[in-house]
Amino acid sequence: MTLAVRAHGWPRWTWQTWLTVAGVGLLGNSVFQTLFLIGIRLSPAGVAGVVNGMVPVLVLPLGLLLGTRVTRRQATGVAVAFGGLLTLLLLTRQPGSPVTPGGMAWLLAAATAWALYTLFNRTLSGRLGALPFVAFSLALGSLPYLLYAAPHVQLGGTPPLAWAGVALSGLGANVVAYLAWARGAQVLGAARTSVWNTLAPVIALMLGAALLHERLPLPVWAAAAVILSGAALANWPARTAAPPTGGTRHNAPTG
């Protein structure tokens, strides 16, 4: 909020706009965090990251409700990703599988909440400005979750390293990542930037294996690869026609 106010001043929005920003922020923060944290308790971190990687895929069919057109390539990517997700769901029926139906249900609900937030984000960011919308939707949308969590916070006996982890997670995910992502979109364009969404689940899988020592069976890795391949295909930037170059001459200025 400090960065947003310094850059753009205090927003002069109507009360309807404030309610809209707060409502969308509630969906993308309190609702999403609640669903995701329940799901990640029941699932390996790597699997949670893969399911969260379904967000750019879910955005496409949900966007149809708002009149967004979907290309054939995007539809193919969505079908491939959902095929991998179906495989992941079938693996939950195997005895001893680290993936549970309950965990998958909570994670999919969280991914759907974030996909809806993303759809509204695109419209409101363009109208209100990306930094003001993100800052105030985050602050207002997190307030109910903060009020819910405050009574459960244990100030006494909490090691400083734990508070450092909370600060690093909050600033990294909600400030640094947002600003870096916005800057990347400015440099690369929205279409190319969306492909990089696929990297987050890949990194989550690798960190889960390296740091948390998660040992996922080969079929789970295969299903994850199918999901991420579909997500990358669905969000791959379309080719734009190159301007004609034949017969072009660069003449020296005259006169």
From TrEMBL:
Record carries keyword S-adenosyl-L-methionine: no
Entry keywords, A to Z: Membrane, Transmembrane, Transmembrane helix
Pfam families in the cross-refs: EamA
Compartments reported by the entry: Membrane
Keyword Transmembrane: yes
InterPro entries referenced in this protein's UniProt entry, alphabetically: AA-Vitamin_Transporters (IPR050638), EamA_dom (IPR000620), EmrE-like (IPR037185)
Membrane-spanning segments: 18-40, 46-67, 74-91, 103-121, 128-149, 161-182, 194-212, 218-236
Domain EamA: 10-89, 103-235
Membrane topology according to the record: Multi-pass membrane protein
PANTHER family: EAMA DOMAIN-CONTAINING PROTEIN, INNER MEMBRANE TRANSPORTER
Family statement drawn from the similarity comment of this UniProt entry: Belongs to the EamA transporter family.
Protein name as annotated: EamA domain-containing protein
